[in-house]
Amino acid sequence: MLEETHDREELIGRVAALDIGKAELTCCVRVPSPDTPGRRLQEVQTYATMTRSLLGMADRLRQLGVTRVVMEATADYWRPAFYLLEAQGFECWLVNARDVRHLPGRPTTDRLDAVWLCKAAERQLLRPSFVPPPPIRRLRDLTRYRVGLVVARTAEKQRVEKLPGDAQTKLSVVASDSFGVSGRAMLAALLAGERDPKALAQLARGRMRARLGVLQEAFTGHFSDHHGFLLATMLGRIDQATADTAAVEAHIETEIAPFQAAVDRLDAVTGVGRAAAHVTIAETGVDMGRFPTPAHLASWARSAPGVNQSAGKTKGKNATGHGSPYLARVLGEAAVTAGRTDTFLGERHRRIARRRGKKKATVAVGRSILVIVWQLLADPDARFHDLGSGFYDTRVNADRAKRNHIRQLEALGYNVTLQPAA
Description:
alpha/beta; Nucleotidyltransferase, domain 5; 3 domains; two-stranded antiparallel sheet; single chain
């Protein structure tokens, strides 16, 4: 029996598609033919990616009455054209290159790619990727750059940890943090030329003073001027990265100010701190109208397993795929932090970890946190309320719990007889 669907054949009347490279782009425009109904006119031109050339292309598109401009997400080359055309008032679509692959055996050139993309766009065969508005884009640039600075600083700290091994000094073996107050004082003394292990050990502070003998032994080595030069360079880079990170964080506080209410709501979620809230807003934005349901947001973030089924069989491992690595890192850290707490999310993490392992538990709880984020951002009046670690216990079926306990005791070699309590 044939059923009517909600699908309608729609054709975008005036559409343009861009095949973008680093130095130039190919623009294909398709518009209705004024002489022959049902026919299309096509124009393909090449433009430089310089601003003046892009403005000339925008004037040409406006002259032709183009309403939508589609382009592939090619590295970062799409950004200048997208941002300029967006500022000129065009509806810009950024599409995933995977969605516009050519048919097997079809030749590919810049011109053919632009025409193919334009034909697919005019027939509504594409879907736009999420491109946040300018305020969120600025915030995203800052939060991502902060991650880069932290990674660079961590790399330098690891180099410092390796350097004393070559000099036969073992500060990192004794001190849990070589860059704490005591550690930095000892490293500064080494740079100043101090080589006496006893004098270096006396720079310890707090609880480290209980290990003066071990510290003195750790500084017995062959720290030369060559090692001092390398250490000074590494510490300089660490200090510079720390200063740059503080400056970037100050700019983040300025950019996040209009979204402070959303940050406060996300900060209340178990495992999510203010820095994680900043990154989450920078990656997803605050307008959840782009994601109709929490499942759409989870799918976009690749926090939900994919479906690959054929002939009644499920193929592969239904992996989640690769979304934003910055958002994935924050969700993973928040999930691990929540797993150490006596809360609903913590109990959920522990329950899943017992059955499926810690890695899958982290992904699952990260998705739960993302669903909570959607709820909080979609409704400004919503507030996070922890259900408590005993939430599952209050909803466990009594008969099922009884069967599970009996089965566990029988597995241990006991014969179980139940007698109701008075």
